[in-house]
Amino acid sequence: MAYQVLYRTYRPSRFSEVVGQEYIVKTLVNAIRNNKIAHAYLFAGPRGTGKTSIAKLFAKAINCSHFNGEACDECPNCKAYLEGNHPDIIELDAASNNGVDDIREIIEQVPYAPLIGKYKVYIIDEVHMLTTQAFNALLKTLEEPPAHVIFILATTDPQKVIPTVLSRCQRYNFSKISLYEIKKRMMEILDKEKIPYEEKAAEELSRMAEGGMRDALSLLEQCLSYNPDELKLEDVEHIFGLTSVAEEVELYLKIHDHQISEVISEVRNIYTAGADVKRLAANLLEIVKDVLIYSDQGKERLLTRITAAEAQNIINVVPNETLFEDIRDLEQLIAREKQSQNFLVYLELCLIRMAEDKGTTKETVTRVTKTIKEPEIKTVEEEVIETKPVKEDIQEEKSEPDPEMQVIETDMNYLLSLLLNANKDLKISDQIVYNKLDLYAYEPEKRKFYQMLIGTELFASNKDAIIISGSRSQADNINTLSANRDLYRFLNKEFGIDKMVYAIDQDKKRALIEMYKNTPIEARRNPAPVFVEKYNIEEKKEKTPEEKLKDLFGDTLKVEE
Ligand SMILES: [Zn+2]
C-alpha cells in the first residue's frame, strides 16, 4: 500500500466528515450562510489537523450554486471541483514554490473574473515558507483584493508570517485532534477497508499520532504494509519499539519479587529509549485490573490486555489485597499525570511502594502506605513559600474606591516564583486554549474575554497560574478585580482550567526576565513551590445582602461569617 493513500482516500468530502475543529467548521458555514465572507483567511495549527482539507471544502462550498450547510456536489461548480479541475480554485504549495515569481504568476491572474464560480479561491499551503519578496508581492494584493478573490493561507508556523500579512487575514487556530476522535476515525476507515483490527492497536497508534490525523493514518499505513491482513497490537509494538505485554507482565512480577533495583533500571531504560512511561503506567494498571477480573470470574474473554495464562501466573504470587492496593496506587499516579512534569520520578516511587506492600499483613499495609504516601504528597504543599491573598492586595489609592474596579497588584517576587514553577508543556497546553479564544469573537456573552486578551501574549504557565503580557492598559484591564475574576470563571467553565491569570506590561516582563536570569541555576531547576490563592468558583451572581454591602464599602466593613 502506497504511503499516504489512506489519507488521500479518506480526506473529508463534506463538512460533516471533518474530524475535530467543529467550531471552525461551524463559523465558516455560518459565514457562507450569512454572506459574510472575508477576503483573506489564515488557517494556523499543527500538521494533520485539517487546515488544507477545510480550505478545500470551504472553496467548494462558497462556489456551490445550491449551498445549504454543505455543498450540493451536483452543480457545475461542485462537479468541476470533484473532478479536480475547478478553474477558479488555485492551490499553491509554498514549501516547493516559494519564490516571488511563483506568487507573481498567480497574482497576475487575480484581476480577471472567475471562469465558472462566484469566487476565485487561492489556497496557499505552508505560507510561512514564502520568501520576503514573495510575501511583499502577496501583500499588495491582500491590501486591495478584488471582490471576487479569496485567499486562504495555511501554515503550521504563524510566527513566521509577516505581521502585515497576518493583520489582513481573519485567523483560525486549528487545535490538535483528540485521541478519541482519531481512534474513532481510524476504526471507521479500517471497517471500510474490511481490515480486521484490535481496538488496542488502533488506540496505540492514535496516541502516537499526538493529535494529527495525517500522522495517525501514516502510522496505520506503516503497520499495514508490514501486515496487510490485520492490525495487531503486537505488530504495533514491534514496529515502533514499544514495551510488549509480555515485558510488562514480567516487570510486574519483578515488582512483587522485590527486584526493585532491576525494576527501576528497566523503567529508566524504557524511558531513555524514548518510550512513553505514562503509557507504561496505564498498561500496568490495565494488567492488574485484568488479573483481578480473572481471579474473580475466571473467564478469559473478559481480559483486555493479558492472556489467562499470564493472569494465572500473577495470581499465583500476588494476593488479591495487594492487587487492590496496586490499582489504587497506579490510579493515583495516573491522576497526577496532568500536573506532573516529573512523571518518571512518581512512577518509580509508585513502583517502589507497590513492591514494599507485598508480604505485609492487612493492618501494616494500611500503616505502611500511610507513612509513605502522605508525606510525599504533603511536602509539596507544606513548603509554601509565599501566599498572595489577591483580594487583600488592593490598595486604597483612589478617592472613591470601588473594590471591583481595583487593579490587582502582584509583587515581582511572587511573579518570579510563578515563573520559576512554569514549564513549556503547560504553556503549550494553555496556548491551545488561548488560541481558541478567537472563537468567542462573535459570541455576545463571551466576546469580552476575546477582547480582553486580543493582542496579548501567553508568557508563562504553571499548574496554578498563567502570566500574560501586553500593553500597560491591557494588563490593567485584565488585572482589574471584577474582570479578572470573570476571566478565571470563564476559563474554568469553558475549558476546565483552574488557574489565576496575571497580566504584566512590557516593562514588568523585561524586569521579570532579568530576575529570572539572575536566579541561580539550582533554584531554577528546583524552584520552591508557590501557593496561588484562587477565586471562589461557587460564588453566585445572586449576592447576599452582606456581600452587597461589602461590594459597596469594601473591607472597611468587616463581615464575619
Ligand atoms: Zn454545488
Walk me through the structure:
- Helix 9 (199-208) packs parallel to helix 11 (233-240) and helix 14 runs antiparallel to helix 16.
- Strands 2-3-4-1-5 form a 5-stranded parallel beta sheet. A 3-stranded mixed beta sheet has the order 6-7-8, sandwiched between helices.
- The chain has 4 domains: 21-173, Rossmann fold; 179-240, Helicase, Ruva Protein, domain 3, CATH 1.10.8; 245-382, Up-down Bundle (Zinc Finger, Delta Prime, domain 3); 390-556, no CATH class.
- With 561 residues, the protein is α/β, with parallel strands linked by helices.
- The N and C termini lie far apart (71 Å).
- Residues 358-398 and 556-561 have low confidence and may be disordered.
- The chain has 26 helices and 8 strands.
- 33% of the residues are buried.
- The radius of gyration is 28 Å and the shape is globular.
- The structure holds zinc ion.
- Zinc ion is lined by residues 64-66, 71-72, 74-75, 77-78.
> Compounds present?
zinc ion
Q: Strand pairing plus helix content: what structural class?
A: alpha/beta
Beta fraction of the residues?
5-15%
Largest sheet strand order:
2-3-4-1-5
User: Which word captures the global form?
Assistant: globular
Number of helices: 26
Number of strands: 8
Calculate Rg over CA atoms: 28 Å
What summary fits the major beta sheet? 5 strands, parallel
State the end-to-end CA separation: 71 Å
Number of domains: 4
Stretches where pLDDT is under 50 for at least 5 consecutive residues are 358-398, 556-561
Determine the fraction of residues in helical runs and give it as a percent range: 40-55%
Quick check: average pLDDT? Answer: 82
